[in-house]
Write a structure and sequence with these properties.
heterodimer, A: alpha/beta, Amidase signature (AS) enzymes, 8-stranded mixed sheet, 36% helix, B: mainly alpha, Histone, subunit A
């Protein structure tokens, strides 16, 4: 079978279970393609020889009852992997080798998957273009010198470019959904508390969630079913009855009420995005859903509130990187000097900027005016959603206000970079699940995504809507393998 | 409100990040444009709104105090910045 890497996860699982393919064949195919794809810079660390070793072992005694039997998979380098370097895209963790495994990745290995390597991301997941990574820019497989989005940029590039059949990312303000939209793939940000945060390098603890990034909705549902487990090691993990998302997946969404929030029609949004949204509404109607106009009045305050809450939490979380116990250490004249130089040389510009914002809004005299104010606004944003969910089952919006942009285009203007997440951030602030599905192309042929937002812990419903709409949309990613010589 | 160089130096001290004059200039520009954006929140009257600290409405669960990680001393020592078989050696951090 020559086109192994073109197959979806579900097809690969089927072929391995039916013994039409071995784990070794599949693993080797993805390694070969990854080797030919160095120009994408999707990987930070590769673990190919040990992956082949594991695949060989799997084939000797295959356990075909597993959900990911011998499936190779690369993951975002924000997940701690035992005995494999985990950098979070930062110089300060360049030499960090965890002695433990994150719960989410452990769940994946327990189902038979094999680690291919660790994928590039914005430093500490802070960025929307993967340009803040210490390990360099990631190329979007769609076009040369195009950003893949961020922070899960390496993950998005690797799935779209077929370097891995599926992957996991993390999403604090849009870091799964925005890159999924920029690269023409599916990305799910689960409800806060659905996936364990244990072993994930922390950015903003009240917002961070891990989630699947896949070529299609069915694959996405399968991985969500595997990674979402209750975990006593994460005190915010929620013990609720989880569906078997892939088994319970249905295209029957007849009578579902889908809300269209007028506040997401923002100034300066390209005509193509508005048209895409209208098309999406029509597709939803064609699937039998009922469309209802709704209002989420505090939408425009979400991003400003996020840029207080997230940096505040980040400044606390990143206080641990002081050069003392592990990670990069600079030489200093005394202890304070060592701290200051370590953090100045070890963190990149965007991370330093956010630590400074966070420190400022938490500092004496400003806490009430900024931090407390932002938390009050966060409550208003959540109230908006609570109110509309009395009337609708889900909400349909564009995923991003634009398609992917060129590398370097927004790098020097933090606020214009932050505006990328205008449609995704409210979901994190309210702790809700959101999924981005590819839904069309702009005039340049770059992919555009639609976002479906659900009620808390109602992943099944938005997966179903996405599944039904995916069929109507019939999206085909336009990738010509430009980076392969 | 505007963030001046003196404030930048103060925040950099609190953040334990060394900042030279050139970097301070750049940071002042960036932070001012970010805070100008953030100040949109002042349009809202939130006096009667309760701050939202966590979206996960869970109460902390109690559990038995059991030892679950045993014999991991060598693993932990692996991340010690200095080679030493027996101890995790770090610079002196208290006077």
């Amino acid at each position: 079978m020559s086109d192994i890497t073109k197959q979806s996860l579900s097809e690969l699982v089927k072929n391995i279970k039916e013994k039409k393919l071995s784990s070794k064949e599949v693993t080797k195919a993805f390694i070969d393609r990854s080797e030919k794809s160095k120009e994408l810079n999707a990987y930070i660390s590769e673990d190919y020889s040990s992956a082949l070793e594991k695949a060989k072992k799997f084939d000797e005694k295959p356990n075909l009852d597993l959900k990911l039997p011998g499936i190779p998979m690369a993951v975002k380098d924000l997940f701690c992997t035992k005995n494999i370097r985990t950098t979070a895209g930062s110089k300060i963790l360049n030499n960090f080798v965890p002695t433990y495994e994150s719960t989410v990745t452990q769940n994946i290995w327990n189902e038979g998957a094999i680690l291919l390597g660790k994928l590039n991301c914005d430093e500490f997941a802070m960025g929307s273009s993967n340009e803040t990574s210490f390990f360099g820019n990631v190329q979007n497989p769609i076009d040369k010198n195009l950003v893949p989005g961020g922070s899960s940029g390496g993950s998005a590039s690797a799935v779209a470019g077929q370097l891995t059949p599926i992957t996991i990312g993390t999403d604090t303000g849009g870091s799964i959904r925005q890159p999924a939209s920029f690269t023409g793939i599916v990305g799910l940000k689960p409800t806060y508390g659905s996936c364990s945060r244990y072993g994930i390098v922390a950015f903003a603890s009240s917002l961070d969630q891990a989630g699947p990034m896949a070529q299609n909705v069915k694959d996405c549902a399968l991985l969500q079913e595997i990674i979402s487990t209750y975990d006593s090691k994460d005190s915010t993990s929620v013990d609720f009855k989880r569906n078997e998302y892939s088994k319970d997946l249905t295209k029957n969404i007849k009578g579902k009420k889908i809300g269209i929030p007028k506040e997401y029609r923002v100034d300066g949004m390209p005509k193509e995005i508005e048209e895409l949204w209208q098309k999406g509404i029509q597709y939803a109607k064609d699937c039998g859903a009922e469309i209802i106009d709704i209002t989420l009045p505090h939408t425009s305050y979400a991003l400003p509130a996020y840029y207080i809450v997230a940096p505040a939490e980040a400044s606390s979380n990143l206080a641990r990187y002081d050069g003392v116990k592990y990670g990069f250490r600079a030489q200093g004249e005394n202890l304070i000097d060592m701290y200051e130089k370590t953090r100045s040389e070890g963190f990149g510009a965007e991370v330093q900027r956010r630590i400074m914002i966070g420190t400022y809004v938490l500092s004496s005299g400003y806490y009430d005016a900024y931090y407390l104010k932002a938390q009050r606004v966060r409550k208003l944003i959540k109230n908006d959603f609570d109110e509309v969910y009395k009337k609708v089952d889900a909400i349909l919006t564009p995923s991003t206000p634009s398609s992917a942009f060129k590398i370097g285009e927004k790098k020097d203007d933090p606020v214009s970079m932050y505006l990328n997440d205008i449609f995704t951030v409210p979901v994190n602030l309210a702790g809700l699940p959101g999924i981005s599905i590819p839904a069309g192309h702009d005039l340049k042929g770059y992919p555009l995504g639609l976002q479906i937002i659900g009620k808390a812990f109602d992943e099944q419903n938005i997966l179903n809507i996405a599944y039904a709409m995916e069929e109507k949309i019939g999206f085909k990613n336009k990738i010509n393998d430009w980076w392969i010589k | 409100m505007s963030i001046d160089l003196k404030t930048i130096k103060h925040i950099s001290k609190l953040s334990r990040i060394s900042v030279d004059d050139q970097k301070a200039e750049k940071l002042a520009g960036d932070l001012n444009s970010i805070f100008k954006f953030i100040e949109k929140l002042n349009e809202l009257n939130t006096d009667k709104v309760k701050p939202l600290t966590s979206v996960a409405e869970t109460t902390l669960k109690l559990r038995h105090d059991e030892v679950k990680s045993k014999d991991i001393r060598n693993e932990i020592i692996k991340n010690s910045p200095q080679d030493n078989e027996d101890y995790f050696v770090v610079p002196k951090v208290i006077e």
